[in-house]
Amino acid sequence: MAIMVNQVGYEAEDAGKRAVASAPGGYVLKNAAGETVWRGEAGDAVRDPLCGETLYPLDFGSVRAAGKYRLENESGERSDTFAIGRDVFSGVHNAMVKALYFQRCGCALEEKYAGPYTHAACHMAESRIYGEGDRGLEARGGWHDAGDYGRYITPGAVTVGHLLYAYKLYPQSFRELLHIPESGNKVADVLNECRYELEWMLKMQREDGGVYHKLTAWQHAPFVMPEEDEDDFYAYPVSSLAVADFCACMALAARMYDSVDRMFAWRMEAAAKLSWQWLEKHPEPVLFVNPEGSNTGEYGDSTDADERLWAAAEMLLAARRGEDRSGYMAALQRILATGLAVTDFGWTDVAGFAALAVLTDFRQTAGKEIREIFRGQVLREADRLTDMSTRNVFGMAMEAEDFCWGSNMVVTNRGILLALAWEILRTEIKDMSRDQAREAAARMDRYQEVIQAQIDYLLGKNITGYSFVTGYGDHAYRHPHLRTTAADGIDEPMAGWVSGGPNGKPGDELAVREIPAGTPPMKCYLDREECYSLNEMTIYWNSSAVFVTAFLRSRALAVESHRDSGI
Ligand code: 9MR
Ligand code: ZN
User: Which of 116, 203, 366, 447 is most buried by its number of CB atoms within 10 A?
Assistant: First the structure.
């Protein structure tokens, strides 16, 4: 029996505040003083395909007064507590960005910034280039990718991609200082944090524009603190996946940092160009597989078309006036003509970033025809996801087979897609007739509702009852598969880490043993440190969630500024 809620909270102005309960009947909402402030009935029973149970939706949207609350029913069942308030996601949002600081490699984490989670500088030795004997590479820096100490180009590029686009679209959601070493330098801390990764990525580029796929040890380290990990690190062979993602990410970052630090932007622009030349010289895919016997992350892929598409889109937008753009346009046209989907934002499929680039470019550099391909696909996908959300009691854009390794990023990447669709309609609405505009506004509201449902799920409105972000919620998960957390001797993990989440096809020993075959996918979760296929954290699961909370905060802040200006 349970009453599942977003354990962080609900935005005061939201017309829909939704919970899910396992019993029918009457419910009350009580404030911190124990007073009943709302009464209502659960909705009709739904046989839910994601968790395999019969459940009841609950909507208490009318309550707006700020405070701490919980839901209760007639048989005395109580939900976890949650807030109703304005800009309720600011805390979790900032913590999810700050979490990346704790992954910094090649420097000490000092108490001033890290609190109790300090450690000495890690992975300071020179790396070796795999297959080139003793040839060394100085590539200190960057973020540890996840629970392991590897650093990989494609997930790094995707993480920075999520964050830079979130900042570009919703700068108002990134105003607070995060207490990192650069804080207070007049640059948004999200840019400061991304720069730490970008500087490392630059070291991974060869003189010919090739980019090493990853920098890892031969085998994952035991559960020791990073400065105790004395394994040799290797730069693994160049892949076109890494080169294209690097090129895209550098071209994007060059635009974004131009007004912050022009010299840095120039370096990135030059690096992007060099990698683009490499791609032109190597038109065939150069994919990546781990050498026999190495077990660190592979981040393999069966095609590099989406990575090349993203690179072409970013190069097109970064091109300066008078520069020849025909190569970028030709690449875009050629790849789009294959019918490639452009709606995902993960490390395997980055084509959605090309859509983000082209559709948020107010100069419309890509021209009508190309824009229309992206636009059509994004809006169709948003409508498909909205439709999908009506088929489960959580109101979320997920189907049973979507609960894979890292399912929480499927959840949040769909939020990104819906936010992009929302943005497209927002920019078009001013040129619409009154009727069209009314219809578009209703569609935008639906998109926002589903985005909200994705975040409600992440923060506790799910069958496991866990909030999947450490430190946020009465029942936040506490045992991420994360070497520093396992080895630091501190009970609580640092706050702000998104778990990989339920995985219908668990891949680690403990999960395989403990989760019976046939368990409905949303229930395939354990808050156990050993469970890397269910409960690891990664930089890109965080960054994807950050994009979505940035969107929701921007909506909340817009409502507030309207109120302040008396509109
Ligand atoms: O996130 C990755 C997931 O989608 C894959 O299914 C899985 C198996 O290949 O690998 C995950 O990535 C891991 C990476 O290889 C190494 N660092 C930790 C990542 C998260 O588990
Ligand atoms: Zn390190």
Answer: 447
**Of all protein residues, whose CA lies closest to atom 6 belonging to ligand 1?**
405
Ligand nearest to the CA of 107: 2
Token pair, residue 237, equals 């062979």
Query: What residue owns the CA closest to ligand 1's atom 14?
Result: 297
**Ligand 1 test: best mutation among 145, 483, 534, most atoms within 8 Å of CB?**
145
> 123 CA distance to ligand 2 centroid (A)?
4
Distance (Å) from CA 450 to ligand 2 centroid: 38
pTM of the model: 0.98
Beta strands in 306-388 (DSSP E): none
Interstrand relation of 136-137 and 127-129 (parallel, antiparallel or unpaired): antiparallel
**Mutation probe of ligand 1 site: the residue of 531, 538, 541 with most atoms within 8 A of C-beta:** 538
CA distance 156 to 58: 39
Nearest to 475 by CA among 56, 82, 22, 11: 82
pLDDT at position 560 over 80: no
Contact 315, 328 (CB under 8 A): yes
| 3-state secondary structure (DSSP) of residue 485 | helix
How do residues 114-127 score in pLDDT, each as one tens digit?
999 999 999 999 99
The DSSP code for 428 is: H
Does any ligand 1 atom lie closer than 6 A to the CB of residue 349? Answer: no
Tracing tokens 């105003």 back to the chain, one arrives at 175
- Tell me which residue of 502, 168, 469 sits closest to 314, measured CA to CA: 168
Q: Does residue 1 have a pLDDT over 80?
A: no
pLDDT of residue 567: 45
The residues, any chain, with a CB within 8 Å of residue 330's CB and separated by 6 or more, are none
Number of helices (H) and strands (E) in the chain: give both, helices first.
16, 14
Calpha distance 352→200 (Å, rounded): 24
Choose the catalytic residue: 11, 148, 193, 306: 148
CA distance 176 to 331: 39
Task: Report the nearest-CA residue for atom 7 of ligand 1.
Answer: 405
- For the stretch 286-320, pLDDT in tens is 999 999 999 999 999 999 999 999 999 999 999 99
31-67 tens-digit pLDDT? 999 999 999 999 999 999 999 999 999 999 999 999 9
**What is d(CA 498, CA 412) in angstroms, rounded to the nearest whole number?**
11
The mean pLDDT of 66-93, rounded to a whole number, is 97
- The count of other CB atoms within 10 Å of the CB of residue 237 is 18
Q: Please say whether the beta carbons of 534 and 502 come within 8 A.
A: yes
User: What digits encode the pLDDT tens for the residues 131-172?
Assistant: 999 899 999 999 999 999 999 999 999 999 999 999 999 999
For the chain, what is the largest distance between any 2 Cα atoms, rounded to a whole number of angstroms? 72
Taking only the tens place, the pLDDT of each residue in 184-220 is 999 999 999 999 999 999 999 999 999 999 999 999 9
